[in-house]
Sequence to fold (455 residues):
Amino acid sequence: MVLVVMWAVGVAALVLSAIQLLGYRQAMLGRERLGRVQARWAARGGVEYTIAVMASHTETPVPDDAKAMIREMAYVSYSRFEVAGRFIASYDIQHHTEGQGWQGPMDEHSKININAAANDPRLLAAIPDMTPDVVDAIRDWVDADDEVRTLGAERDYYQYLTPPYEPRNGAFRSLGELELVAGIWPEHLRGEDWNLNNRLDGAEDDGDRTWPPDEPDQELDAAWSGLLTAHSVRGGPALSGLERLWLRTATAEQLQLRLGVNEQVAQALVTFGNDRKNRLDQLLTTSLRQPETAGDSEQPGMTRGNSRQQGAARTGSQSSGPIPLLTPDQLRAVFAETTMDDPGVRMPGKLNINTVSEDLLRRILVGKEHLADEIVFLRNRPNGITSMVDLGLEIPALRDDTGTLEYLAQIMDTFSTVYTITSRGRSAGGGIEAEIIAVVDRSTLPVKILQYREQ
Fold:
């Protein structure tokens, strides 16, 4: 009888232990799931908070401070969440560039848009290790025809691969698509940033211990992914917060009200905008004047393109005499409030002259690195460079080099519309982490999420 009782007690103890172990495991799984939920929504909170800052600065910009939004996004790049005074989770938003970590999202306009570079050999030449065969292959990938360039690749090449696939024959839609182009390997594009999250992760700074191979130097070598983007776009509201005036369709009355110019200058701008050959950057080096007579087709101090512009101004206004030159403030307003780009077409974004890396700026200005140094000095002011007009006004060497000044205005601007937010949430209990990477476009309101992934 005693043996039976002891046997029953032993079985009961085993059952109780099993129940306790099962309960413990269930509790652990529950805490882990709760931690994952807390971390995920903390990361999402960081994304939403940053989007709210972008929307606010899009609706009510700070015209005289090109860095205002950057500072505010850095300010909200970390936060803690509490319930009833108890800390439950936090998030932080960072990106790594120029050898160090920065608070806030990655500015996609600090990189060259690959779709713009495909049509500009000078931009492709600024990318290190960009060989001629890769340049031709990139240009073949985006052009609409099937004619193979000298060292390029078209449909026939890609159809013989395993598995076969079609070239885009159009604009790149993501940076990862570059890996499909002939001659480009993941190592070229990703470098140490194998997960393309713009952050220096532990596995990317431990040498050969874990994948990917890297140098344990506390710096992220992102290779081409740190220099190229496919997401940046032109456009967005003017610095007044209003919709930009398209010079092709704007009326003289609209220009007078928005820019503070007189009727003659407004009419000359309308005529200038109606000429499809004209570009806004030409106004940095070309005087907007109306000569009194047809014989005044060339006036002292005027640069190329003036004869066309003067003739246009002559036909666009009935009054005689020269139209006064735009004052610096009026010229800034023209760049801030108007556009020559069709607002119905999403064009590849320009580089932001305030955030492009010093190294990339010098590569673009190869042979004229002294100009890059002048630009870096100018943008290091607390409010940065607020208008491309300031380059010609405050850098004498650029004022004399009109070709470089115009080119910089063609490929650069002073604001950005697209950012990549890499928000990492962390639960307070088990230290569980979740990461959200969102590419966000503020060129229209409400702000759009172009790409979203969690890891």
